[in-house]
Write a sequence for this structure.
């Protein structure tokens, strides 16, 4: 992945979040406070503006700066969580204009660790982690098996989607949905869904 | 959606402009988006900074002023402020004696305030955090994000703010804030769902004869849905939950807050206060002080919360101390 592909990925996330903001908000209204789509749209719009105005020479910098922008613009829980994730991904990458799929495996794991450490969520809590973790695992296994980036990204997106859909039956134990107790079951988690969008965007921009 | 707004995206900024115009005794920083006492920083005084999503007015900006908060950081509607904003407010009001962050226990608020406190520490400012988590409608709180911060936030800000105003040290101000929170329990009902300007439609559908019990202040649904019952019955259920979570004995003294969530007329809040007073009197509990009104709101939601705080003589003395803010003002 080079700087151009990294920025293309984040732009694709911005477009996808914008297009699906109403859907994310609908999911969040059911078990949260209905602002997830609006907040992510504000954040990734700012990320797109950052990309427009900055010439990057390092892939890691792209993600570090994008993460910082999300922390500064989004608020709520999703700002710190996604912001810290992207910052951790960027910091874990070796400096330079291009990184290997193996570098990305390490970096995506660092992002997952950052989310888990900050939010304290474990698999099954009905959070971002329920899509992020299977995506990272699928990505890592594909790369270890010799897959190129497009194939690994497609597998990660599928795993994220499966993980997000599987949150429907879960009872939330972290985040605002946890206040609903068992009433949170039967709804897809908005955070896991936006994580799926992020991995789907990676699959889309790397697709041959 | 019918609201007195121009553009849904501009609501928070335009409301801050109006707050600044109405209250020249406050300093509103429109770039960093915080509200501060005009005379801040006050040298040697412990500063109190709070904040949270907008839509709960007068909380928090309406409680900035002598005797209460030094600064408040309003986020977007129902969205916690960002670390930059909280850091800017913290630096603006730090008088060298340290800063207390009063944080309602929501995942986003906790994360953003924690990040801001770490950044402030890097700049040499000592921050103590007082977490408010009084909402007893949240059960299984060990396994969830924990109880939410609601009505008790007002009492924490008032009582800790008074101690800071009279020269309390950082540790003392934080300690009494935590004591007030620990002694508080709240429970809320909603008659209608809330409509945020950005969403433009109610967060959930509620039939005419049903209510949400154990509702939060962000339009999230409550713990369960019930049939509407007479106010006296609802008050008894709420007080059962409150007094079970935070036992108050006969002979104890309490401060009671009957708080409107934004769309409930005062006539109903007073009716409810009367029911609360009757129940507590029957249990031999003395209501030392009380507040009835709209203090910690949820935009246009029809509903109310009841908060009971078991108090010491010192807490009552600090509650009575002078306060001069847009939302709370006496003795000064």
């Amino acid at each position: 992945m080079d700087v151009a592909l990294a920025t293309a990925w984040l732009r694709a996330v911005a477009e996808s979040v914008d297009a699906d903001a109403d859907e994310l908000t609908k999911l969040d209204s059911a078990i949260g406070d209905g602002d997830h789509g609006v907040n992510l749209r504000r954040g990734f719009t700012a990320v797109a503006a950052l990309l427009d105005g900055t010439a990057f020479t390092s892939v890691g910098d792209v993600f570090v700066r994008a993460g910082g922008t999300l922390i500064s613009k989004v608020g709520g829980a999703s700002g710190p969580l996604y912001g810290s994730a992207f910052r951790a991904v960027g910091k874990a990458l070796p400096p330079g204009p291009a990184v290997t799929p193996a570098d990305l495996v390490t970096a995506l794991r660092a992002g997952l660790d950052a989310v888990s450490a900050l939010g304290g969520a474990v698999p099954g809590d009905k959070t971002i982690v329920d899509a992020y973790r299977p995506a990272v695992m699928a990505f890592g296994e594909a790369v270890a098996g010799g897959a190129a980036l497009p194939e690994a990204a497609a597998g990660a997106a599928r795993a994220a989607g499966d993980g997000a859909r599987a949150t429907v039956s879960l009872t939330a134990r972290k985040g605002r949905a946890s206040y609903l107790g068992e009433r949170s079951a039967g709804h897809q988690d908005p955070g896991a869904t936006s994580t799926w969008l992020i991995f789907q965007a990676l699959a889309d921009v790397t697709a041959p | 959606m019918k609201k007195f707004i121009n553009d849904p995206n501009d609501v928070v900024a335009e409301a801050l402009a109006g707050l600044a115009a109405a209250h020249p005794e406050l300093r509103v920083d429109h770039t960093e988006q915080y509200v501060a006492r005009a005379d801040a920083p006050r040298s040697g005084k412990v500063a109190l900074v709070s904040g949270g999503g907008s839509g709960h007015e007068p909380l928090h900006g309406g409680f900035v002023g002598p005797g209460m908060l030094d600064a408040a950081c309003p986020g977007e509607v129902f969205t916690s402020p960002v670390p930059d904003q909280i850091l800017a407010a913290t630096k603006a009001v730090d008088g060298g004696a340290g800063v207390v962050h009063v944080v309602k226990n929501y995942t986003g608020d906790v994360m953003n305030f924690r990040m801001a406190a770490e950044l402030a520490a890097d700049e040499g400012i000592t921050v103590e955090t007082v977490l408010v988590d009084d909402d007893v409608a949240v059960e299984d709180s060990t396994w969830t994000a924990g109880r939410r911060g609601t009505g008790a936030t007002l009492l924490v800000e008032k009582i800790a703010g008074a101690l800071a105003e009279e020269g309390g040290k950082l540790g003392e101000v934080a300690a009494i804030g935590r004591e007030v929170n620990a002694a508080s329990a709240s429970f809320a009902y909603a008659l209608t769902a809330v409509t945020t300007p950005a969403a433009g439609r109610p967060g959930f559908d509620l039939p005419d004869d049903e209510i949400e019990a154990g509702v939060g202040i962000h339009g999230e649904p409550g713990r369960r849905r019930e049939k509407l019952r007479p106010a006296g019955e609802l008050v008894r259920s709420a007080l059962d939950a409150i007094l079970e979570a935070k036992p108050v004995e006969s002979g104890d003294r309490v401060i009671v807050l009957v708080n409107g969530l934004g769309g409930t007329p005062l006539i109903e809040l007073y009716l409810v206060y009367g029911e609360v007073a009757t129940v507590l009197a029957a249990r031999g509990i003395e209501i030392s002080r009380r507040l009835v009104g709209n203090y910690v709101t949820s935009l246009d939601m029809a509903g109310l919360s009841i908060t009971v705080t078991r108090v010491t003589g010192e807490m009552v003395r600090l509650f009575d101390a002078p306060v001069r803010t847009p939302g709370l003002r006496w003795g000064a």
Q: What stands out?
A: The domain at 3-206 of chain A is CATH 1.25.40.340 (Serine Threonine Protein Phosphatase 5, Tetratricopeptide repeat).
